[in-house]
Amino acid sequence: MGKLSLVLGAVLGGLATVFAQSISASTYAPIPTIAVGPPVNNATGWRVESFGHGAYMVTDNQYNGIFLVSDKGVIVVDAPPTLGHRLLHAIGNTTRTPITHLVYSHAHADHIGAASLIGASPQPKVTRIAHRLTKEILADLKDPGRPLPDVIFDDTYTLRVGNQTLQLSYKGLNHQPGNIFIYAPLQRVLMVVDIIFPGWAPFAYINQAEFVPGVLAAHDEILAFPFRHFVGGHLTRSGDRADVVRGKAYLDDLKANCADAIALSARDGNSLSAGPVLAAVDRADPGNAWAAFKTYLDLVTTYCANVTTEKWLGKLGAVDVWAFENAYAMVESLRIEWNVLGPFGVQPGV
C-alpha cells in the first residue's frame, strides 16, 4: 500500500469516527405518545391490522399498504420494498385467496419498488392499476421492479372484485403527479400516500412535495371523504379524522409562520431585515448572488422553523428532526408558488 493510500485511509477513517461520534451525540426530542403505534412481530417483521369486512393494513412501522380480501381475489395497494416478501407472507397468513389486483398509489419506488414480486411465477398473474401520469413516469424510468400498469384512468375508477369495492380518484398535483385517493366505502378506509403521517410531522421538505399548495389542498379533499380509518403509507399506525385535522393545522401554522418571516424581512429595523444582511454578504462575497440568497433564505427559514417547533414539539412526533427542511420547503413555496416574495417582490415605483 502506497503512502497516499495510507494517508487517505487515515483521513477517511478519522472522518468516519467523527461522523459516528456526531451521530451518537445527536439527540432529538422524545417521541410523544401520539406517534407511538403497536409493535411489529419480532419474528416476522410485520404487523397486520384489521379494519373489518376483509380490509387490512400491513406495516413494518416504517411503510404500510392495504389489502382487501374478496370472494374472488385479493386487492393489494402498494408494495413497499421494506416489506418486500414479507408483504406476501402477511397476506398469505391472513387468507388463502390469491392476489388478483395491485393498485399503485403513485410512482415512487419506496412505495411500489417491490411490485414485481406480486404476480411473479408461480403466483397467478395480477392486474395492475394506476393513474395515467403514474404510467407515464414509470414508462420513462423503465424499472423492472415497477412493472407498467395494465389499467389506467384519468379522473375516477371503480374497482370491483367479487364482494369488495375500491374507489380510485385523482384530485390533481400534490406530492407527485398521479398520486391518487384510494377509498373502500364499505369499510370507510381511505388511503392517500405521503400527505399525512398519523401522529408525526412530515418527512423532509414536506415529504419531498412537488407542489406544496396541492399538499395543503389535499387535507381538505381528504376530509371531504366520510372515512373512519386513514392510511398514509408511512410509520407506526393508521389514523383517523383527528390526525388529518392535526396535520392540516401543523402545515397551516408552518405556512403562516414562514409568511410572517418573509414579511418581517421586507421591513427595516428588526433582526430579519434583509437590507443589512444582504449588504454584509456583499461585503464578504462581492457579486455572489447565490451566497446572498442562501444567507437570506437560511435566516427566514430558521426563524420559521424555530417558531413552529416551539409550538408543535410534543404534539407531533419528530417535529424537530425536519424542522429546517420543512420550513425551507414552505418558504420557497410561498415565494415561487404563492407569490409571497418579501424584499424580492415588485418594489414601489420611483
List the topology elements.
Blueprint: H1 3-25, E1 47-52, E2 55-59, E3 64-69, E4 74-77, H2 85-92, E5 99-103, H3 109-112, E6 127-131, H4 132-141, E7 151-153, E8 156-161, E9 164-169, E10 181-184, E11 189-191, H5 204-208, H6 212-223, E12 229-231, H7 241-265, H8 274-284, H9 289-312, H10 323-336
Parallel strand pairs: 4-5, 5-6, 6-7, 11-12
Antiparallel strand pairs: 1-2, 2-3, 3-4, 8-9, 9-10, 10-11
Helix pairs in contact: 6-7, 7-9, 7-10, 8-9, 9-10
Signal peptide: 1-20
Domain Metallo-beta-lactamase: 62-234
Organism: Staphylotrichum longicolle
List the main descriptive attributes of the protein structure presented here.
single chain; 350 residues; alpha/beta; Metallo-beta-lactamase, Chain A; 7-stranded mixed β-sheet; 5-stranded mixed β-sheet; 12 strands
Q: Overview of this structure, please?
A:
This is Metallo-beta-lactamase domain-containing protein. Residues 62-234 form the Metallo-beta-lactamase domain. With 350 residues, this protein is α/β, with parallel strands linked by helices. The protein folds into two domains: 33-200 and 229-238, 4-Layer Sandwich (Metallo-beta-lactamase, Chain A); 253-344, no CATH class. 39% of the residues lie in helices and 16% in strands. The chain has helices spanning 3-25, 85-92, 109-112, 132-141, 204-208, 212-223, 241-265, 274-284, 289-312, 323-336, and strands spanning 47-52, 55-59, 64-69, 74-77, 99-103, 127-131, 151-153, 156-161, 164-169, 181-184, 189-191, 229-231. The strands form two sheets. A seven-stranded mixed beta sheet has the order 1-2-3-4-5-6-7. Strands 8-9-10-11-12 form a five-stranded mixed beta sheet, with no helix packed on it. Strand 10 and strand 11 (189-191) form a beta hairpin. Helix 6 (212-223) runs antiparallel to helix 7 (241-265). The longest helix has 25 residues, at 241-265. 40% of the residues are buried.
